[in-house]
Amino acid sequence: MKKLICYLGLFILILLASACNKEFDDYPEPSETLAGNVKDAGTKSNLQSEAGDRGIRLVLEELSWSSTPTPYYFFTMQDGTFRNTKIFKGNYRVSVEGPFVPLVQYDGSGQVTVDNRKTMDISGNTNVDFEVEPFLKVEWVGEPVYNSTDATITVQARFIRGTANTAFHANVTDVFLFVNPVSYVGNNNYDNKYSTQVNYDGTTGNDQLGQTVTLTTKDRIPGSRAFYLRVGARVDYGLKYYNYTTIKTINIP
């Protein structure tokens, strides 16, 4: 019993010593805001994306304390806008990554050959826009059509190259009609029961550039509700993220 009491007393002393030596973080919480848009350099409209880690990523490197900082990441919304209200005040190098010509490019030896990152002070409400060249521009052709005979939806879309830089003219791998009963729709959030995909082998997808592609949903679409539609297409480059149309809503009778 005496040994147990001694052990308990020693354990309490260790805890007290550890608490006395603890350093408290007295830095204020981050409260600066960085907001803006990622735009198609050609059309000046926002580049459509998907929410989450397969969408457009912001890369922040704080230069206030180091010339080689650890990057901090966050993502845009699916409409290409972004807003982060929890950033420390400081001087930053800011970039974006996604299905477009990289803002930072390297040669075979790893040397930077192109650098379109932006260096700025983030303090209070800071706004910045980026203009990028998407691998593909994907657009609607007409409006979605509900086929009452078999309760499906047919859409038409077209995709073309979004950059004149032939180094990024990789083969088109597929086109995808994403369907979802909620407004968040894309490769990260769709109903596989109705969505449909067309895959291309080799260079066959490139033959569809500039052509009208027709896509029809799988299975019967349940009535008396709204569905959200989006077409995505991608090329065989990098992580093979999709470029997208805007989102359309169709109300099923």
Automatic annotation (TrEMBL):
Q: Where is the DUF3823 domain?
A: 33-132, 143-248
Indicate the secretion signal residues.
1-19
Pfam families, per the entry: DUF3823, DUF3823_C
Q: Which organism is it from?
A: Chitinophaga barathri
Q: Which InterPro entries match?
A: DUF3823_C, DUF3823_N
Keyword Signal listed? The answer is yes
| Entry keywords, A to Z | Signal
- Coiled-coil ranges per the record? none
Q: Tell me where on the tree of life, at the top rank, the source sits.
A: Bacteria
Name the chain's protein: DUF3823 domain-containing protein
Gene3D superfamilies, sorted = 2.60.40.2060, Carboxypeptidase-like, regulatory domain
Establish whether keyword Signal is in the entry: yes
Lineage of the organism = Bacteria, Pseudomonadati, Bacteroidota, Chitinophagia, Chitinophagales
